[in-house]
Write a structure and sequence with these properties.
Farnesyl Diphosphate Synthase; mainly alpha; two-stranded antiparallel ribbon; binds geranylgeranyl diphosphate; about 0% strand; 2 strands
Length: about 300
C-alpha cells in the first residue's frame, strides 16, 4: 500500500469538504473568517480526520457521511493549536510554518477565532441534512464522543494538568495523564467516531478504541522526540520548547531511547487490537507506523 498516496487522497477529501463548509474570507465579519481560514488552511497533516475516515472504512463504511465528523475533529484540533499558542499558554510565534494566529490577528481575534472553530465543529455535525443521512442516535453518539475527547475529561483536562505541572516535579502517573488526555483523547475520539458512524459491532469498536488509545499516546511521545530532534523547517514550529518551558515529557522522564522503545511498543499493541478487523484495517496499521516514525 502506498501510504503517501493514501494520506494525500484523504487529506484532499477533507480539505475540499472544509473549503465548502467554512465561510469565505469575504463573509462578514471578514477579519474573523480570515483568521479562521489562516490557521485552518496553513497546512496541517489532517491526521485526526484521516484516522476517523480509516476507522469508518475499516468497519465497512463507504460513503461521505463521515466527512462532517472527520472535519469537525480538524476544526477542534486547529482551535486547540490557536489557543495553545497564545501568550497565556505556550506563547509560540510559529505554527504550521507561519506566524501564529495571535501574531497576525492579535490576541482577541485568536481567542475568538478558536472559539468560532470549536462552535463550527458542532454545527457541522448536527446540520439538518446530516440527520437525514444518518440515524439521529448515531449523530448524537458521535457528537458526544467528540465532546468527551475535547472537553474537561479529555483534551482540556490534559492541558490544565500540563499547565499546572510546568516547572514542578511530576510523577509518571501525572505525565501519563497529561499525554493521554491532552493529545490522546481527541485521537481516541477520532477512532470511535469512525466506528460509530460506520456502525461497528461491539468487538470492532473496542478494538478501534484500544488502537486509538495506543496510537494517541505514541503520537505524543513521537511529538516529544521531534521537539528535541526535529528541525523548525520540517516541523513548521520552533523546537526545543518543552525543555525551555520546563515541561515534563516521556524522553525527559525515561530517556530518549526508552521513550522511542515505548512508542514502538504502543504501536505494536495498537496494531494487535485490530486483529478482528482483518484486511480492511490495513491503512490503520500503516498509519500507526507513520505516527511513530514521522519526521514532521
Ligand atoms: C489550548 C484548548 C487547548 C488545548 C490544548 C492539543 C493541545 C491542548 C494543544 C496543542 C499543542 C500541542 C503541542 C499539543 C499536543 C498535540 C500535538 C502533538 C499537536 C500537533 O498535532 P499535529 O502534529 O499538527 O497533528 P498538524 O499541524 O499537522 O495538524
Amino acid at each position: 500500500m502506498d501510504l503517501q498516496a493514501y494520506l494525500e487522497q484523504k487529506k484532499k477529501r477533507v480539505d475540499e469538504y472544509l473549503e465548502q463548509v467554512v465561510p469565505s474570507e469575504n463573509t462578514y465579519p471578514q477579519v474573523l473568517h480570515k483568521a479562521i481560514r489562516y490557521s485552518l488552511f496553513a497546512g496541517g497533516k489532517r491526521i485526526r480526520p484521516i484516522l476517523a475516515i480509516a476507522a469508518f472504512e475499516a468497519v465497512g463504511g463507504g460513503s461521505d457521511v463521515i466527512l462532517p465528523f472527520a472535519s469537525a475533529l480538524e476544526l477542534i484540533h486547529t482551535y486547540s493549536l490557536v489557543h495553545d499558542d497564545l501568550p497565556a499558554m505556550d506563547n509560540d510565534d510559529f505554527r504550521r510554518g507561519k506566524p501564529t494566529n495571535h501574531k497576525v490577528f492579535g490576541e482577541a481575534m485568536a481567542v475568538l477565532s478558536g472559539d468560532a472553530l470549536l462552535t463550527l465543529a458542532f454545527s457541522l455535525m448536527t446540520e439538518e441534512r446530516i440527520l437525514k443521512e444518518i440515524e439521529p442516535q448515531l449523530v448524537l453518539q458521535a457528537s458526544r464522543e467528540i465532546c468527551f475527547g475535547a472537553g474537561n475529561f479529555g483534551m482540556i483536562g490534559g492541558q490544565v494538568v500540563d499547565i499546572l505541572s510546568e516547572g514542578t516535579h511530576v510523577d509518571f502517573g501525572t505525565l501519563e495523564y497529561i499525554h493521554t488526555h491532552k493529545t490522546g483523547a481527541l485521537i481516541r475520539a477520532a477512532l470511535r467516531v469512525g466506528g460509530v458512524i460506520g456502525k461497528a459491532n461491539k468487538e470492532n469498536l473496542l478494538g478501534l478504541t484500544r488502537y486509538g488509545e495506543c496510537v494517541g499516546l505514541a503520537f505524543q511521545i513521537a511529538d516529544d522526540l521531534l521537539d528535541i530532534e526535529g528541525t523548525k523547517e520540517a516541523l513548521g514550529k520552533n523546537t526545543k520548547g518543552d525543555e525551555k518551558k520546563g515541561k515534563i515529557t516521556y524522553p525527559a522522564f525515561l530517556g530518549r531511547e526508552p521513550a522511542r522503545q515505548k512508542a514502538q511498543e504502543l504501536m505494536d499493541m495498537g496494531i494487535k487490537n485490530l486483529d478482528s478487523l482483518g484486511e480492511s484495517a490495513k491503512p490503520l496499521r500503516e498509519l500507526a507506523s507513520f505516527i511513530v516514525h514521522r519526521k514532521h
